[in-house]
Fold this protein.
Amino acid sequence: MSGRTLALIGLSVAAWLGCSSDHAVQSGPSNAGRPGQTTGGAAGAGTTGAGRAGGGGFATDAGRSGSSAAGAGGRGTAGMNAGGALLAGRGGSSSSGSAGTLAPQGWTCDPATYGDGTCNCGCGVVDGDCADAKASACEVCDETSCWPLHCDKVEPDDNAHCSAPPPAWNCSPRLYRDGVRCDCGCGTLDPDCASSGATACDKCDSPGSCSAQPCPGTIDVDANGRCAQPAAPPEWTCPANAYADGLECDCGCGVPDLDCRTSDFDSCVRCLTCGGHGMCVGTVDPEDPTECAPPPSGWTCSDAAWRDAICDCGCGVADVYCQGIELSYVCGNFPVEGCSAGDKSHIDPNHNELCLIDVPSEWTCDRSFYYDGFCDCGCGAVDLDCALDDVSACEQCDGDGSCSPTACPGTIAAADTAHCTN
């Protein structure tokens, strides 16, 4: 074949290739508009490719998902077709994992459920997966929805919200999504709140709120539907977990409880350390609810015995924990400071607040030594254990509180076992 013939064939092939290329640009989708594929390029940024001039042209795919072997998905770059129309990009993807769609401000459900391909309802914001904002579009109302696990309370024309407060709402129903103010501490987020933080709160101490104090009160700084329990101060005398627990106003605890809405006795609900099985009436000082009320007049035992939730006997006044029963069989304790000196045999069997045998007020030795079966001398009063009021009957002369510094006979008066000669 001659060289001239070969040259003609080459020119024909080149012309054919050029026509094919032009046709692809003018009539078919441009490769520039396809997902931007690169081994190391940024995710989702599809390359923009303008079609060549002429012809009706097809829209390029530059706005569709850009992909990358390493990048995270993003927004596709806008592409332009051969006729000049701008097409907005769609979300990009990546072979190593998608960045997902960030939940918008106001989304109250699990953030992972926004844009997950399922229409989630009752989440404070209409899910982008929903065909529209109507309840009929709902597919899921999960446990984080305003009406957990059920969509029947979702507003018919606003599937982001419920027609009734969720079960976790503890404040008045009329406060929920009233369009007036952001109510906090009510058990769950009020849709009226601009955010879930404590700074969005307008009211923190409505009845039912876990905070009894005005804003910010004890509201959790990051989740204003609930409270954060602070540590109890050192002066707190009740159980530490009762302080500002968001449940009840505790009184008689040394310092005011943040759960108390006022400092008045009428606010007291629980009084754990003042006796009375936690009841406050008669156990807390009405003038100062942070303190326990003093025992009644005539009580001879300790304040602690009055409040120890045990039937204490021999204390001069019937203990409320004896439940109105005066017989000695109900006695649970016999305080040494009472008339029994710790010996239950001294108690009057029919009037357990009294004793058949009282320790004399003049007695200076250990109270439990009186009439215990051992003759103690020099104690300011004659011990009933002594057979005679004579030093020869003494068995102990130098016990604690005795006037004799030495063992018997010591300095005990010969005919007065209660006193000494010095």
In short: Residues 1-99 have pLDDT under 50 and may be disordered. The first strand starts at residue 79 and ends at 80.
